[in-house]
Each structure stands twice: as C-alpha cells, then as structure tokens.
C-alpha cells in the first residue's frame, strides 16, 4: 500500500492514537504483518491492543505482545466460543495472565451475541458472569461485546458492579440512552470505524455528544473498515479516519480527539510509552 492512500489529517509530531481493539493474530494480517505495523506507526498509532477470542487466540495475542513493543494483549473468550469453555479453560487463562502480566492489559472480548448465537444464550450468560468474575480477580479492565442483547448485558454488568478496573463497551452500536447506562457503570464507549458510514446516525449522535473523557477509539480489524476502505480489510492505521470523523462531528480538531482518547486508553489499560 502506498502512503498516499492514507489520507488522514496530519497530526502534531507528539500526538498519537491507540487502537484499543484489533485481532492481529487473524489470518487476514499474515501476508503483510510487518507492513501493517509499519503503516500504523506512520499514521501515529503508537499502541495496538490485540484481542483474544478463545484460549488459542489469547495465547497468540500474548506472543505478539511479547514480540512487538507496539502491541499489548487482552485475553478471554468471545460469546461465540463459550460453549467450549471448561474449568480447565479458566485455569489456563488465569495461568496465561500470571505468566505474562506485563504484556496483558485487559480481559476480553467477552459478552453476549444474540444475533448469530453460535453458543446458546443461556450458556453465553453463564460464562459472561464467570469471565467477569475472573477479570475482577485478575484486576483487569473488561472489553465487552454486545449484539442485540442490551437488557441482559446491562443486567449482568450491574450485578458485577462496581467494575473496579473499569472497562469498555467495544464497537458501540447503541443509542445515547444506552451509552449513558454504560457510562453510569463507570465504563468507556469505544467508537469504531462504523461512525464514518453515512447510515450510522445513532452512532454519529453518540460520538458527537458523549463526554470526550468517556471515549476511546478502535478498528476491530480486520473487520469494519472505515470509509474510504469500507468492504476491505481493516487495519490499525485506519483508526485515524475514525478520529477525524469524530472531530468533524464535534467541531474540533483531530489532534484533540487523538490526545484525549489516547489519554483515556492509557489510563484504563495502564499502557506504557
């Protein structure tokens, strides 16, 4: 990819971005992994949190974090895969954290997905609660997946509250009313590249109105690439397009959005320079 294709606004030399949610271990990145990291660096993306979706993926996330200063890891089991979780899975996830504390900054992604239901909803709810308990024991912020499960997601999070290490609602897709309920639990709202889509009216309103102190940014790569790359593979360099769109919606500068959301991510995940 030529640098001229990356048309995000220039940021000040000391302004950086954080991609709080990407799946760098997935096959879509393997052919040009070095290029993905190089482009991210060129586009001021200083930190990328790569997210585990099951035990194997969590191990790969940790291996990437061990190998690259730019990357840190989150571990956990996605709601699609919780039907395969056993007591041994929990033990191994805890052992993985204990052996790699300096590389693991979050627990997730975990939560509920009532759209695809690869795992039965009742099983999803059971393991969502159990994984929240493990995250609390490990003192890790949680990364929550919620698709068409608002009521149950909020109910379980309220029962788990207070979330002493905090957390984020990943790839937020709700309205301002839902955003307020999430923020009232002490969590942050993660804005994905969907905010650049013309039909994403609810998300645009959320991005325009919630306190900036409650916002972080993400790609969810390799999925959900922002405009002008919609339909193609997403990658961390593109988080700048999301920052630029949020800045436009809030009538401010991309520098300001980058600085504040980066500071929010650094505080939540205890990231290091």
From TrEMBL:
<dbReference type="InterPro" id="IPR032466">
    <property type="entry name" value="Metal_Hydrolase"/>
</dbReference>
<dbReference type="Pfam" id="PF01026">
    <property type="entry name" value="TatD_DNase"/>
</dbReference>
<dbReference type="InterPro" id="IPR015991">
    <property type="entry name" value="TatD/YcfH-like"/>
</dbReference>
<feature type="binding site">
    <location>
        <position position="109"/>
    </location>
    <ligand>
        <name>a divalent metal cation 1</name>
    </ligand>
</feature>
<feature type="binding site">
    <location>
        <position position="220"/>
    </location>
    <ligand>
        <name>a divalent metal cation 1</name>
    </ligand>
</feature>
<feature type="binding site">
    <location>
        <position position="170"/>
    </location>
    <ligand>
        <name>a divalent metal cation 2</name>
    </ligand>
</feature>
<dbReference type="GO" id="GO:0046872">
    <property type="term" value="F:metal ion binding"/>
</dbReference>
<feature type="binding site">
    <location>
        <position position="21"/>
    </location>
    <ligand>
        <name>a divalent metal cation 1</name>
    </ligand>
</feature>
<keyword id="KW-0378">Hydrolase</keyword>
<dbReference type="InterPro" id="IPR001130">
    <property type="entry name" value="TatD-like"/>
</dbReference>
<feature type="binding site">
    <location>
        <position position="145"/>
    </location>
    <ligand>
        <name>a divalent metal cation 2</name>
    </ligand>
</feature>
<dbReference type="InterPro" id="IPR018228">
    <property type="entry name" value="DNase_TatD-rel_CS"/>
</dbReference>
<keyword id="KW-0479">Metal-binding</keyword>
<feature type="binding site">
    <location>
        <position position="23"/>
    </location>
    <ligand>
        <name>a divalent metal cation 1</name>
    </ligand>
</feature>
<dbReference type="GO" id="GO:0004536">
    <property type="term" value="F:DNA nuclease activity"/>
</dbReference>
<comment type="similarity">
    <text>Belongs to the metallo-dependent hydrolases superfamily. TatD-type hydrolase family.</text>
</comment>
<dbReference type="GO" id="GO:0005829">
    <property type="term" value="C:cytosol"/>
</dbReference>
<dbReference type="GO" id="GO:0016788">
    <property type="term" value="F:hydrolase activity, acting on ester bonds"/>
</dbReference>
<protein>
    <submittedName>
        <fullName>TatD DNase family protein</fullName>
    </submittedName>
</protein>
């Amino acid at each position: 990819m030529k640098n001229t294709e990356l048309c995000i606004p220039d940021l000040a030399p000391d302004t950086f971005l954080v991609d709080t949610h990407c799946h760098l271990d997935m096959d879509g990145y393997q052919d040009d992994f070095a290029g993905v990291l190089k482009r991210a660096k060129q586009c001021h993306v200083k930190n990328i949190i790569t997210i585990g979706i099951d035990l194997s993926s969590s191990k790969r996330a940790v291996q990437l974090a061990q190998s690259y200063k730019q990357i840190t890891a989150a571990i956990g089991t996605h709601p699609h895969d919780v039907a395969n979780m056993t007591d041994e899975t929990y033990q191994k996830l805890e052992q993985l954290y204990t052996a790699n504390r300096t590389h693991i900054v979050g627990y997730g992604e975990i939560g509920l997905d009532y759209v695809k239901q690869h795992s039965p909803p009742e099983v999803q709810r059971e393991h969502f609660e159990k994984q929240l308990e493990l995250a609390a024991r490990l003192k890790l912020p949680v990364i929550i997946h919620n698709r068409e499960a608002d009521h149950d997601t909020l109910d379980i999070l309220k029962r788990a509250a207070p979330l002493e290490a905090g957390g984020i609602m990943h790839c937020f897709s709700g309205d301002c009313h839902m955003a307020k309920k999430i923020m009232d639990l002490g969590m942050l709202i993660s804005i994905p590249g969907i905010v650049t889509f013309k039909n994403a009216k609810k998300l645009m309103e959320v991005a325009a109105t919630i306190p900036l102190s409650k916002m972080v940014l993400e790609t969810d790569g390799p999925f959900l690439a922002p405009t002008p790359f919609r339909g193609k593979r997403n990658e961390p360099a593109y988080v700048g397009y999301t920052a630029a769109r949020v800045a436009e919606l809030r009538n401010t500068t991309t520098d300001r959005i980058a600085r504040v959301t980066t500071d929010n991510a650094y505080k939540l995940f205890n990231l290091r320079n």
